[in-house]
């Protein structure tokens, strides 16, 4: 069974450097304010979500299991 993810980006710290959008290209997109938005939580595999989270310079990406609320990253 594929785990459903709840992915959140803290716009208070996101600096819009386009890193996550270039790693998980189907999941993240920059909005008009140049903040990353999770536009499709199921768009990329979990490894890409983790890679994007690990490469965010300001740790703005948080990932939870949608059903249990368990924090997966960071
Ligand atoms: S990698 Fe982090 S700082 Fe850069 S756009 Fe994504 S969420 Fe924002």
Keywords:
three-stranded antiparallel sheet; 2 helices; Alpha-Beta Plaits; binds iron/sulfur cluster; 5 strands; two-stranded antiparallel ribbon; alpha+beta; 74 residues
- Largest sheet descriptor: 3 strands, antiparallel
β-sheet strand percentage: 25-35%
Helix proportion range: 10-25%
Mean pLDDT: 93
Spans of at least 5 consecutive residues with low confidence: none
The topology string of helices and strands comes to EHEEHEE
What is the first-to-last residue Cα distance?
22 Å
Total count of helical runs of at least 4 residues: 2
Number of strands: 5
Structural classification: alpha+beta
Identify the bound ligands.
iron/sulfur cluster
Examine the coordinates and then state which fold CATH places here, giving the name of the CATH topology.
Alpha-Beta Plaits
Q: Mind explaining what this structure looks like?
A:
It is a single chain. The chain is α+β, with helices and mostly antiparallel strands and 74 residues long. The chain has one domain (5-73): Alpha-Beta Plaits (2-Layer Sandwich). It has helices at 19-23, 46-55; strands at 5-9, 28-30, 36-38, 61-65, 71-73. The chain has a three-stranded antiparallel sheet with strand order 1-4-5, covered by helices on one side. It has a two-stranded antiparallel ribbon with strand order 2-3. The model has no long low-confidence stretch (mean pLDDT 93). It binds iron/sulfur cluster (SF4).
Helix-strand blueprint:
Elements: E1 5-9, H1 19-23, E2 28-30, E3 36-38, H2 46-55, E4 61-65, E5 71-73
Antiparallel strand pairs: 1-4, 2-3, 4-5
